[in-house]
Every structure is written in C-alpha cells, then in structure tokens.
Amino acid sequence: MNQNQECRKHAPIGVFDSGVGGLTVVREIMRQIPNERIVYFGDTARVPYGSKSKDTVTRYSRQIVRFLQSYQIKTIVVACNTASAYALDDIEKETDIPMIGVVKPGARTAAEVTKNGRIGVIGTEATIGSKLYNQYIKQLNTNVQIYGKACPLFVPLVEEGLWQDPVTDEIATRYLTELIDIGIDTLILGCTHYPLIRSTLGRIMGEAVTLVNPAYETARELKDMLQCRELLNDKRPALGENQYQFYVSDMADKFKNFANSIIKYGILSAKTVNIEEY
Amino acid sequence: MNQNQECRKHAPIGVFDSGVGGLTVVREIMRQIPNERIVYFGDTARVPYGSKSKDTVTRYSRQIVRFLQSYQIKTIVVACNTASAYALDDIEKETDIPMIGVVKPGARTAAEVTKNGRIGVIGTEATIGSKLYNQYIKQLNTNVQIYGKACPLFVPLVEEGLWQDPVTDEIATRYLTELIDIGIDTLILGCTHYPLIRSTLGRIMGEAVTLVNPAYETARELKDMLQCRELLNDKRPALGENQYQFYVSDMADKFKNFANSIIKYGILSAKTVNIEEY
Questions:
Q1: CA B94 to CA A84: how far, in whole Å?
Q2: Alpha-carbon distance B207 to B235, whole Å?
Q3: CA of A15 to nearest chain B CA: how many angstroms apart?
Q4: Pick from A193, A215, A218, A251: which is nearest to A43 by CA?
Q5: Which residues contact B72 (CB under 8 A, 6 or more apart)?
Q6: Which of helix, strand or coil describes residue A210?
Q7: Can you tell me the distance from the alpha carbon of B267 to that of B242, in angstroms, rounded to the nearest whole number?
Q8: Subunit contact B153:A157, Cβ cutoff 8 A
Q9: Where would I find the beta strands (DSSP E) of chain A?
C-alpha cells in the first residue's frame, strides 16, 4: 500500500443532512467504526428539505458537497432521506468521491426481512412522493408490496422534544393506522428523525412488525464499503485531535444543544458556514 | 398631481413572507383596499424563518426586496413577524420605498386595548426571542407587562390542516396555560399562521381576553399610509388584468393549493423564482 492510500485511510468521512436529523446516522457511525474522523454539515438555514422540490434539494446538496470537498473527505454519507431520494443519483456522477445514501441500505434490509411481502415506509412528503424506496425494494424483490405514508408532523414533534408524549402517540396512531390495517410486517423509518421516537412507533405497530432503521444499516454498509476499498481507518485519532467536526448554515448554538441530546459523546462546538457561497 | 404620482397610485404593493403565512395579511389587504394590485413573494424554498438567526433572515429579506423592486412596487409589506422583527429596521434604510411590518401595528393595537396592562404575545422562537413586540409596546405604554411565549408547533399543525382538531387544542392548552394563569387580557397573534386557528385560541383563552390580529391591523395601517401619501389606488383594475401575482421560491403547486384554502378569491397561478440569484 502506498503512502497516498495510507493518507486517504485517515481522511475524514463527510456526512450531511438538512439539519439535525443526520446525527442519528453519525451516532451509528461513531458506534460501529469508532476510529473514523467525521466532518458533519447540517443545513439549518434552509431546513427542512422534506417539503421542497427535487431541483431545490439537488442545488442545495451540490453546494454542500463542494463545502465537504474542502476537507479532503474520503467518502460522503448523504444522511438525509430526502436528499438521498432526490439528489444522490445526480451528485454522485459529478465527483470521484464514493457516496452512500440512507435509502438503499434501508431498502435492502427491508426486502430481506419481510416475510409476508408487505412493507411500510414512513417519511417526509418528498421522500414518500419520490417513491424511491419502492423502486429499490422492487429491484431486489419483485414479490413485495410497498405502502408509503408521509408523516409531516413527526419532525416538528421530535424537534420540540415530545419523544414520549400523548400528542406524539395520537398523531402516530393516526398516521400508522392504515399501515396496521394493511397488515405490513416491516416498517422502514424513512426519515432520520424517526429513530428518536422509535419506542412510540414500535409500541403502536406491535411486536409482529420489524422496524428498519436506515441509520443503522447505512453505517453497516459504510463500514463494508470502506473495508472493501481498504479505506477503513485502523488507528484511533490521538486524544486532543479534533475527531468530529460539526458545521451548520445557521443557529450553531441551538444545533449544539440538540446534538448533545442525541450524541452522548459531547459535541464541543459547531461552526456556522455561509453555504450559499459554495 | 402630476402624471408620475398618478402612475405610482396604480403601482402594485409588494408583500412578502417566509411562505404561506403572509397570505392572511394579503387576505386583509384584499378586503380593506380592494382596488390595490399585489405582488406576493413566499420564500417556500427556505421556509421557516422562525427558527433562523437575525443575519440569515436579514440576508433573505434583502434578496426578496430586490426581487420585488423589479415590479416597480409603491410600498412593501413585510408580512412575516420574524422578518419584521429581525430585518425590517435594516432593510428599510437601504431603499426609498416605504415599508410596513406586522409587528408595529399589532403592538400599537395591543397597547391601546389592554385594560389590566397584561399583554401576551405568541409567535415563533425568533419573534419571541427578539422581544421586539415588548420594545414597541413599552414605547407606547410604559405601564404594561408583556409576556412572550414561543409556540413552535402551531405552524406545522396549521400547515397540516389541523385548524380544528383535538391535537391542536391539546398543544394550544399547553402553550397558553401560563398566559391564562398570569391573567393577561390581550393576546397578540404574533405569527401570520395563527389567525387560521383563531377560534381554537379564542376558546382556550376565554371571552375576557381580546385577541389582536396583526394582519388586520397591518392592512388598516397600510391603507392610512397610502391615503396620507396620496398613493391609494382609486380605480379598480379592469377585469382580465392580473391584479394579484404570486411568486414563490419552490413548490408553486402546493402553495397554490394552500393559498386557495385561505383566499376565497381563487389564485389562478403561482410562479417559481430562484431567489438566491437576487
């Protein structure tokens, strides 16, 4: 292995999301491949992406890729279901950097675990409207039916901190009843905020339904991909090194507070970037 | 009166908001001064403003002002509480066009109608955090106490269409209980979405509390200002003329549907603009 390859191993992983939701993916990466450096960007000035169009989400994602490239990242994780659904296919053609989105890993797991062939997907309007989960699952397993349901209130409820709350129960029951009636046996949590209300969703769906968390599956697939390309970092960064860096387009303090409720590691700082300049 | 002044009378009024909320202000302008032309811009690609910083909201507002100026507007109504609170003071210094925000008219009415001197203000985090309502009310009436309460879930609940719903009742009760306990007699609906859940808010606050709708007060003040400057349009635009024009930065179809639920007039079209280019 040459020195260049050795260098690339130690390069950081770029992760981006429309805001804070992608931190559930970061959390999984930290758990599963703890030696890796991460540069995270959350587009808090333009959040949410889930109600925006394909063109807009692609333009925003392109700017973020340019920003992350300035950190010599070895790979990019699109930790946002909407950007994975709308922008990933376009932006990965535009650079040599390998990219992973959260949609394919979640789709693959769901196609594997379903027994009765009825899979539910919940997410933002954009993710559900794109039908991209359907498309990927159908490529892997043509014998399944996929039922999508947009749940636009889950993100604001999670961001308001109502992770365990009768209001969240009531809204979740309304959204999920039709999926229960259809008799799905697998439910994809197709938005990075949703793992934070996983226990509520699990209780309402019942024990017979397997919840698929794309954040977990994405970190697993990322590990495999890095291993396969001999890019896995084999040395833990030294203490005092800045292993995790967080950037946002707005409201760095609020981001830091929310991030610290998700990642127990303790995020020391988040810096603001004017992303429209990229 | 010269021809130039006569021309300016017939020029449109520019109105902008972070998204659809400003349509409650448009609705009041249509009712109170039905001869006026309106050019509306809703920043649906970057909505919401209420959780963003002063710098970001000011930068966005500046771009929108440049866009509206391309329509030779005679005045600008900042139909967004957050932009009125954060950006208006800066942007009105940068042009000769007279501007009106929604904060001052609401503040003035509240200062006039309170009897016990206890005024509540509800709005987004940004509006409440800015304390701008407090500042204006105190300038007019030093003998009052102002109690602000951020209600971040109201906007998503309104946009989800839950205008009359037990969940909205429950969330409103939680947000408003502390204002009821304080014994306020006046409540400012400090976000343009809130007039749409006015009946819920009124029921929870009780008959003794006066609700102040800044959208209504702003249209009234706009009429006075135009009258005073001899800029009120005295001729109704001819049938077939495009009296109302709507522009958004994203998702024009969704905007049109929501707009048609607020404005009974019937919005024929909304066009998409790339606002970052302004």
A1: 40
A2: 40
A3: 21
A4: A251
A5: B11, B12
A6: strand
A7: 11
A8: yes
A9: 13-17, 38-42, 75-78, 99-101, 118-123, 145-150, 186-189, 210-212, 244-248, 270-272
pLDDT tens digit sequence for A245-265: 999 999 999 899 889 888 877
- Calpha distance A191→A17 (Å, rounded): 11
CA angle, A168 then A170 then A174, to 5°? 115
State the pTM of this model. Answer: 0.89
Residue A38 near residue A267, CB atoms below 8 Å: no
pLDDT in tens, B229-259: 999 999 888 877 889 999 999 999 989 988 9
Whole-number Å distance between alpha carbons of B42 and B18: 5
Angstrom distance (rounded) from CA B109 to CA B85? 17
CB of A161 less than 8 A from some CB of B: no
Q: Please give the ipTM for the structure prediction.
A: 0.85
- Show the tokens assigned to B79: 């139909």
Distance (Å) from the C-alpha of residue A26 to the closest C-alpha of chain B? 23
CA atoms of B162 and B167, how far apart (whole Å) = 8
The candidate with the shortest Cα–Cα distance to A168, out of A151, A185, A148, is A151
CB within 8 Å of A41: residues ≥ 6 apart? A14, A15, A16, A17, A64, A67, A68, A247, A248, A249, A273, A275
Looking at residue B241, its pLDDT comes to 80
Q: Look at strands B38-42 and B13-17 and give their pairing.
A: parallel
Does B180 touch chain A if contact means CB atoms closer than 8 Å? Answer: no
The dihedrals phi and psi of A67, each to the nearest 5 degrees, come to -65, -50
User: CA A64 → CA A14, A60, A126, A254, A269, distances in Å?
Assistant: 10, 6, 19, 20, 19
The tokens describing A26, both together, are 């970061």
Q: Is A170 an interface residue toward B (CB < 8 Å)?
A: yes
Backbone angles phi, psi at A75, to 5 degrees: -160, 160
Q: Is A152 in contact with B156 (Cβ distance < 8 A)?
A: yes
Chain B residues with CB-CB distance to A44 below 8 A: 51-52
Confidence of residue B1 (pLDDT cuts 50, 70, 90): low
Residues of B serving a catalytic function are 80, 191
DSSP letter assigned to residue B236: P
C-alpha–C-alpha distance, residues B129 and A130, integer Å: 37
User: In this structure, which amino acid lies at residue A150?
Assistant: A
Q: What is the mean pLDDT of residues B167-183?
A: 98
CB-based contact (8 Å) between A256 and chain B?
no
Q: Quick one: which of B21, B24, B20 has its CA closest to B215?
A: B24
A45/B contact by beta carbon, under 8 A: yes
Q: Mutating which of A18, A49, A51, A250 best tests the B interface, going by the most B Cβ atoms within 10 A?
A: A51
